[in-house]
Amino acid sequence: MPVVTLRASDGAAADVYLHGAHVTSWRPAPDDEERLFLSARSEFRPGAAIRGGIPVIFPQFAAEGPLPRHGFARTANWRLESTDVTDGGDAVATLALSDTPETHAIWSAEFNATLVVRVGGPRLIVALAVENVGAAPFSFTCALHTYLRVRDIGHVEIVGLRGTRYRDLDDSATLRTDDAASLRIGGALDRVYVDAPRALVLREPQRSLGIEMRDFPDVVLWNPGGARASALPDMEPDGHRAMLCVEAAAVQAPVTLATGGRWHGTQTLDTSVRAAADGERR
What residues have CB less than 8 Å from 152, skipping those under 6 apart? Predict the structure, then answer.
């Protein structure tokens, strides 16, 4: 399956498949350590979603609507519009997806979607944009379903969500408030944080990762836990212990675009961000 490898002038690199506009690898500079989880059992074939990396969820999140689960963008063939290296040395790729007779069979919208992937130094920036090019308004939900590679899920905590409302996907009608200074992952987790803070930190022993969202109002946290992971045919044994999904999302309230309207959102991952011991961002 066609893949584009982006390499910045400082050695930072990312792999992007045209299948799903799917980022499957990110190795920041200068450490060159893989920071995205990709299951060893991922299926790389037409019609199948890749398990890991950054699946593009569009135009529907999960099974919250009449379309196929998580929409069709993650299994569609995107076009490579351009690759470039900026004056500062970052490597950039732009991919595009438009409506087709196949998408019209399940969703009537006329749209153009673009995904811009930018890598350089300690940062990976992924930006999704959607434009209404038809004569009728449409609504959608979306997410960047980012699988972060962790060393041990039992030693991971998320800093920055204190005071934020969330819903568990098995009780989506109830909103609760997270009062903890940091969130530790004690088992299976499937939450949507509504109107979430723009900046979070994933903290592990000896390292942290900054996660910043722009124009994505929500954040999804997901780990299948041991029992569910063992039932997933494309997840290796104990794979759940090496990953945590932290997803920039617009899912609680659908985005509605009038004719000619455009929406965009960005997620930035940054290995240079640190979190202080008291749980505050430094």
Answer: 204, 241, 242
Per the CB < 8 A criterion, the answer to whether 19 and 44 are in contact is: yes
**What pLDDT was estimated at residue 180?**
94
pLDDT for position 163? 97
User: Annotated catalytic sites, by residue?
Assistant: 145, 247
Segments forming the whole domain that contains residue 219: 3-270
How far is the first Cα of the chain from the last one, in angstroms, to the nearest whole number? 41
Residue 230 belongs to domain with CATH number: 2.70.98.10
Residues 6+ apart with CB under 8 A from 166: 175, 176, 177, 178, 191, 192, 193, 194
Residue 163 CA to residue 1 CA, distance in Å, equals 44
Tell me the Ramachandran region of residue 140: left when phi exceeds 0, alpha when psi lies from -120 to 50, beta otherwise: beta
Overall average pLDDT of the 203-217 stretch: 97
- What does pTM read for this prediction? 0.95
Pick from 107, 86, 85: nearest CA to 97: 107
Mean pLDDT, residues 227-241 taken together: 94
Residue 42 predicted with pLDDT over 70? yes
Q: How many domains does the chain have?
A: 1
- For residue 141, give the amino acid letter: T
pLDDT for res 187:
87
Q: Is residue 282 part of a domain?
A: no
- What's residue 170's pLDDT? 79
Farthest-apart Cα atoms in the chain, separation: 54
Mean pLDDT of the chain: 95
Q: Work out the percent of the chain whose per-residue pLDDT is above 90.
A: 93
What is the Cα–Cα distance from 257 to 274, expressed in whole angstroms?
37
> Given 3-state DSSP classes, what are the helix, strand and coil percentages for the chain, each rounded to the nearest 5?
5, 50, 45
